[in-house]
Amino acid sequence: MxxxxxxxxxxxxxxxxxxLSPTAQAGEATPMAENPAVEARLIAISEELRCLVCQNExxxxxxxxxxxxxxxxxxxxxxxxKTDPEIKDYLVAxxxxxxxxxxxxxxxxxxxxxxxxxxxxxxxxxxxLYLRRRATRVEPARLSAADRASxxxxxxxxxxxxxxxx
Amino acid sequence: xxxxxxxxxxxxxxxxxxxxGLNRDPHEVPSPLVGKPAPAFSxxxxxxxxxxxxxxxxxxxxxxxxxxASWCVSCRAEHPLLVAFSKxxxxxxxxxxxxxxxxxxxxxxKKLSPADETSLTRQRAGAWLSQHGDPYTLSVLDMxxxxxxxxxxxxxxxxxxxxxxxxxxxxxxxxxTPEALEKKILPLARQLAAES
Lengths: 166, 196
What we know:
The complex is a heterodimer of chains A (about 170) and B (about 200).
Chain A (H helix, E strand, L loop, with lengths): L1 H16 L18 H11 L18 H15 L4 H12 L14 H28 L7 H13 L9
Chain B lengths: L1 H21 L20 E2 L7 E2 L9 E6 L4 H16 L4 E6 L15 H19 L5 E5 L3 H5 L7 E5 L5 E6 L4 H17 L2
Parallel strand pairs in B: 3-4, 4-5
Antiparallel strand pairs in B: 1-2, 3-6, 6-7
């Protein structure tokens, strides 16, 4: 909730400051401190995006050169007044869904999103079926009359167990 | 017996999935641009300063767009294949010289003026082509990598096969191998050449 409020605040700030900020010069990264609102939004967006060169790093954290270039592009898009979804679409159009750390829910990703729940449901159903079957299968062993007689004969033959010395 | 078959089956399924996963290259990210029109650009040619090239100039031809740079080691590995291929005259190859100066870690491009960067780019790219052979119909200079971003370039070399209508039909990520050329690029190019 707090994070949401912070994003909202930076968005509002970016909207207010957007038209005032100078457009980025091509090829020249604006220094970090120039516009803190833009930088905050840049970090918020790029943490959700994957760096394609070092794939386990976010665009915010990567020191790869391409990540630097893409941060420059994202910064420019923010300054142009683009919304977060528009900026993400810009990158997805070029690099595919792979750049998103949060894959979109669509038919090709249904297995990814709902597969684990399906597996869990399957496991729970399997467990219930197994427990039910086991409950009906385990029943006290029945002794036939002959078995009972031989057991009694054995018991009668056995001398009482000596008492424990302790 | 069934007791053992079920876990064994599950285990084998897992092994198959892991084997598939291990044999895929995580760096080969399928491009969303395949099947889409090649992004437009207008960049200065390497050989003719002041003159620009844009993909629209290739309308009506099947062609390759090959992303390269002199600092790119894999490009050098790929290069003899491109040179040999260009001698057969199969397809026009346009070279996109990608961040020739900025991509080289050894140079601090921020200290160069734009004019110096352009002349250094021409000098380095030209020297590399005269040393290793020039398979390109022409090369264009993408000094800041902007066009590279539009094409989804994330590792050099990359090659795009573009059809007569200017639609990207295939993308090779990494160097073109003889197998990729024979089995994928050439058959597809022949098929595209037959299209009206």
